[in-house]
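Internal QA ticket QA-208
Title: Verify multi-chain structure generation after dependency bump
Assignee: T.L.

Test input:
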Amino acid sequence: MKALHFDGRNLALCDVEKPEREGEALVRVLKSGICKTDLEIIRGYAKFRGTLGHEFVGIVERAESSDWIGKRVVGEINVGCGRCHVCKQGDSRHCSDRTVLGILGRDGAHAEYLTLPLRNLLKVPDGVSDEEAVFVEPLSAAYAITEQVEILPETKVLVIGDGKLGLLCAMTLALKSKDVSILGKHKQKLDIAESQNINSILLESLAKLPKKSFDVVVEASGNKTGFEIALEMIKPRGKLVLKSTFHGSTKAEMWKVVVEEISIVGSRCGRFAPALELLERKQIHVTKLISEEFSINEGLKAFEKASQKGVLKVLISM
Amino acid sequence: MKALHFDGRNLALCDVEKPEREGEALVRVLKSGICKTDLEIIRGYAKFRGTLGHEFVGIVERAESSDWIGKRVVGEINVGCGRCHVCKQGDSRHCSDRTVLGILGRDGAHAEYLTLPLRNLLKVPDGVSDEEAVFVEPLSAAYAITEQVEILPETKVLVIGDGKLGLLCAMTLALKSKDVSILGKHKQKLDIAESQNINSILLESLAKLPKKSFDVVVEASGNKTGFEIALEMIKPRGKLVLKSTFHGSTKAEMWKVVVEEISIVGSRCGRFAPALELLERKQIHVTKLISEEFSINEGLKAFEKASQKGVLKVLISM
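Actual output:
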């Protein structure tokens, strides 16, 4: 089968064997999405070798339970050992022996097939298109914020970063708060937010904003200065949600966190079920975030496109 | 009156006028305590000029309400404007126009007299000695952690730093958790913790400790490496409490906070009332932390002593 394989140096379209893992379901991938993490892996983050990709929608072709066969599914990307304390509490996202689809010890979704345990799969409701379903993973990561931090209608929220993740965060937060702003560099991207009742702020206008004025700040810019801006804009006792897995060390004025008694909340993955529900109820319109779709035969082009400035989500179809 | 005055360059024992502020009570100071913040101010932190000191016990000599006269008191150090949104919510600790005793815009406690609004004062119960009462400010700062983060009997807690604040944090946390450890460099200081059912760990034995094994880590070391160690020792989804107002920027692997979904909680001041209660009920034995006491006439010697390695609390008596 075809797979976009990273050998530690280069990404290549390869012909590899269909994956097989004991006790796991075989999924024929319909579409996958390129995430910033994929691009970071190519730059050396996570030291992963193998087939990239962790955002997908597919059809179950083989499974231990026959009622899954032929079903359209998405899949939670963390696969815990199933035996440790953390897994038994139902949170395999933090199992220390976990594998992660296309990120850690497990081939990923930019391929014609993948395997995952049945417990990781969720059926996609009929009303959700393939294009929408590919967004379940990043959408659940964005929605997770609302499960970690209390967001009320009057909570003043700032999202830093107008990339895919920043936009998804702003869109999900705007379901809870009436006062969400997004800060970014690209007018075109910010316009997507504006169309969904989110106040957009160009980075060049940042100086005009009153400092220490937001109850919640979400850092989703993926660059070094995002955290500094977040510390400037947040109110005393505010909540700063960190979303960027910016790789490398950040210089941080941590004493400000003490003096202003700020809480910083690290936030990575979320649960898929509520994200699927948002899509089914048409509460979030994710397809506006699609910049282009490529066939897997043009997978390298797809990655080239995804790494260009100003580009949002790039999809790959199998 | 005598006062230890910092002019931006040097600390000196000066003869200054008795303080007077409209609507505030005049307090004759009995004893004051030298805090690490005092030493940091001398190094340029907070750009404060004036009489240092914010830990004290004293007697009210003049007040608008006569039933306070002659009462032994301690005092909350943040004085809010009383008019803004934050003050009206009762939290003048974060009023943006606040003054802070001996730290920001207000002469402090290393002097024969100070003034504070009556609303900042708390009467000291008879069973609490002067030596104990001086500890109310740092003790309330330590106890604040238990109000910010849930500590259960089985919560595994690590306190980094065996200075005064680290020891007070460990001692108050040990009232809630049966599994508190303290990490430090000084066997003598750690022994104080050991005597109060706290597990002590010398820094040189750190490598033997399993990483990612603590539910809650309190960073109270006041030095650059404390935060790094905290990130290594904390469990995924753990709570990292920042107590040190280490001045300057810290290099931090903030992506770890995201991947492990850690929460960082900045923690500065606490409420005085619960700290006074702990002392009254003899639940915390703070006098073990006193290294030496000096008369204000020897105030400069007291500061010299307080800045030496291995020294804990130095008191000044008026």
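Spot checks passed. Chain B touches chain A at residues 86, 91, 93-94, 96, 212, 227, 236-237, 242-268 (CB under 8 Å).
Status: verified.
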